[in-house]
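The methods section describes the discrete structure representation at length, but only in general terms. What matters is that the chain and its backbone geometry are given together, residue for residue. For illustration, here is how one protein appears when written out as sequence plus structure tokens:
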Amino acid sequence: MFHRRQVAMSAALTRAADTIRGLIRAADGSEVLEVQIEQAQRQADRARDLLDGLEVMAEAAARCYEIETGRAYMPPSGGRSGRDARQTGGVFEAREWLEAHEREEAARYRIEGLPLAVAGDRDWIDHERVWDILDRTRERFRSRRGSDMILYHKGDRKGTDAIAAAWARSREVAQVTFHPNWRAFGKRAGFRSIDQMFDTPKRLGGVVIFGTTGIALNLADKAEDKGIRVLRIRTGD
């Protein structure tokens, strides 16, 4: 029973992983696709947890059978998935190939660099000021920290975010957008996006805010609480 359930759950996990890969390839920055990716990740995590639990229970039951009967246990369908049971030559080589393939796939989407989070007013129009600050900050990252920049922003189509995104495209700087999920979080969606910038594996190398919008000030305050350097630019500075 455990092994049959394992086979079914393994297939579900494979489908979930394929779904995530497809959504990543189709990513267009839309809110709908962001929600679909989050849902697919939750389903994959749940399937992985269930599969891990089933594997432990199935292997424990198989070992009990072997101790009691003195005979090797082989399931009627599928195969043993315990560490000892699956280390045959063919399986070992296949797993090595699969791991190398997945490392190559992951490398295609890996972004190297130090993140700089940017936020600000939606009515900010001083393009030259934004470009000048980002140029100087990028050079500082390179000279003092030996790292290129990754631009974090909320992906707004107006004001600071849009100007910073245009700068990143022009300078060929990698950028990651944290689109607010207004449908799920309502008025707190923008603040939720700010929180996500702090939850990535890469620690923020700095924060720049342009103006005095509430979300930008929230980003600055949270960064300073974590000991991250913040540059605050206001109109006329």
Q: What stands out?
A: The domain at 2-109 is CATH 1.20.120 (Four Helix Bundle (Hemerythrin (Met), subunit A)).
